Structure of Haloacid dehalogenase type II:
Amino acid sequence: MTTNKTFVFDVYGTLFDVHSIGKACETYFPGKGESISETWRQKQIQYTFLRQAMGKYAPFSEVTRDALRFAADLHGRPLSLKEEDRLLEAYQSLSLFPESLEVLSHLKEKGHTLIIFSNGDPLMLHPLLKKAQITNYIDHILSVDTVKQYKPTPAAYHLILDTIEEPRSDIVFLSSNGWDISGAKAFGFTTAWINRSAQPVEGLHQPPHYEYSTLNPLPTW
Amino acid sequence: MTTNKTFVFDVYGTLFDVHSIGKACETYFPGKGESISETWRQKQIQYTFLRQAMGKYAPFSEVTRDALRFAADLHGRPLSLKEEDRLLEAYQSLSLFPESLEVLSHLKEKGHTLIIFSNGDPLMLHPLLKKAQITNYIDHILSVDTVKQYKPTPAAYHLILDTIEEPRSDIVFLSSNGWDISGAKAFGFTTAWINRSAQPVEGLHQPPHYEYSTLNPLPTW
């Protein structure tokens, strides 16, 4: 009996700490790095939802720049194009969460199939994964940019089924974003919510199958 | 030469102050009414975007209950069904902004066509408008519930064109929500952003045609 499973990992907030960018933000916003990082992330996600509804897809790297610009404007300190570029470059050096590397390594050793599935377009996603030296553990790197539909649309999640032939419920979908988990659950995946910031379950009537505070419990599956 | 125009008003946040609910929230969350109101509104809007992307439409009254539940959970004080019902009932008695009534009355006197266009389903929208005694000034009350597509989808904005036969750019669309203005601008309406909380323009590359801090300048159009 094989116990090999397919694990699908979200990237931003799940494997990587998006708020590790706060330090880089401090350079241009002294004492406000954390606040900028919070607004930046919040608008980045919101703009994917809004562009999805408007039918105006733009790659995540552009959305990320637009969100940074809003955050800077909100804090009354607009950035030059060069300053924006520097912060966006720093977004390709986000820190992994402390356990990410070891968990990926353990799961890979056990023979599981590991997939990365992200809103990030290749332009920003690949340098991040390469710098963090995790590509060796990953079987497939998937980006919604292929279908130009953001999570949590069914069209986005379907990309995974186009890549591996497995029943949806056999696929374990991991994300720290509650809304991503809701979307993946509605789509039919088995979901494990990495609830890093101890949030309540989203009010979307799609509670996760499993809930952990970090990725650490995964290798014992 | 006729100068009659069609003005389309958003409801929540534009004519009515959604945060006037904060007082009612104080009953169950002493000292936290404002914070609850903020989270409630934020999740209410977010859930419309998420349900839109997931293809899981639910009426705004349900979404509003789900968002309230999340806000209560986040603050560690879950509500009973009866308490939820009371706060949702209070949502039908939101306060108009100080100038709303006079502006509607002036525009109507001048012979303009006034339309209300809201995410709110009739169940929650009609009692609110009736209690505030503004229905006499309004020519058409439109809800996205008719098409079951939330703003900012083109399908939602198209409801307005199904109601009045006018070129899009002759229709003046008013909202305090920057993202709603972005959607309406992308759709082709003439947009006036009632930027009540002095926010930066949303990073969606659809800046408003006009920007005011209240509805007061409208009667001078």
Q: What stands out?
A: The interface with chain B takes residues 43, 46-47, 49-56, 66-67, 69-70, 73-74, 150-154, 179, 182-183, 186, 199-205 of chain A (CB under 8 Å).
